[in-house]
Amino acid sequence: MTKAQILTDSDRLQLVRELVEEQKQDHKEIEDSKKNKDFAQIYSEGFDRIKSLIIKNPSAARLYVFLAEQIEPGTGAVVASQELLAEELAVTTRTIRRLVQVLEDEGAIVKIKLGAGSICAYCLNPEEIWRSWNTQKKYAAFNTRTLAKKGDNDDVKQKLKVLFKARG
């Protein structure tokens, strides 16, 4: 054995200390991730947006709040069909299209159409509403929670297959 391979008792003790410290840090990160699991940060701009929408167009405010509730932690977007949104808000898909247009015109959301059909990604401004730690904002609108009705599943599955093939 060479001198570089021999560990002294002091070296072993230091390695154990480092391992214990790493385990404590891992445990702390796990516990921290469980805290405020379902929290949403609503900034002043977000409250201003909601108040303004409630006055101008309460239905648009309902849609905005619904989308804000659905974004997955660490994202600034949610993917859903217009049919699902219409069903959730008890309105028609025509009303959803109109409300989405109102929210886009107001600068409250950005709609990204995902292929043919009515499935879109609805991106909220992370400076208004955010569902994770500030440090994760650089990934806003790239990771999404996807909501789909049973009837949409074949279309969603196909799009996900194409997406993953393109990345692979």
Concise description?
By secondary structure, this protein is α+β, with helices and mostly antiparallel strands. 53% of the residues lie in helices and 14% in strands.
Description:
The model has no long low-confidence stretch (mean pLDDT 79). It is elongated and about 75 Å long. The chain has helices spanning 9-34, 44-56, 58-70, 82-89, 93-106, 153-167, and strands at 41-42, 77-81, 109-113, 119-124, 129-130, 144-146. A 4-stranded mixed beta sheet has the order 3-4-2-6. A two-stranded antiparallel ribbon has the order 1-5. It has 6 helices and 6 strands. It is α+β, with helices and mostly antiparallel strands and 168 residues long. Helix 2 packs antiparallel against helix 3 and helix 4 packs across helix 5.
Tell me the structural class: alpha+beta
Count the domains.
Answer: 1
What helical percentage do the residues reach?
Answer: 40-55%
- The overall average pLDDT, rounded, is 79
Q: How many strands?
A: 6
CATH C-level name: Mainly Alpha
Order of helices and strands: HEHHEHHEEEEH
Radius of gyration from the alpha-carbon trace, in angstroms: 23 Å
Distance between the termini: 45 Å
In CATH, the architecture is Orthogonal Bundle
Using the coordinates shown, work out and report the CATH topology.
Arc Repressor Mutant, subunit A
Largest sheet: 4 strands, mixed
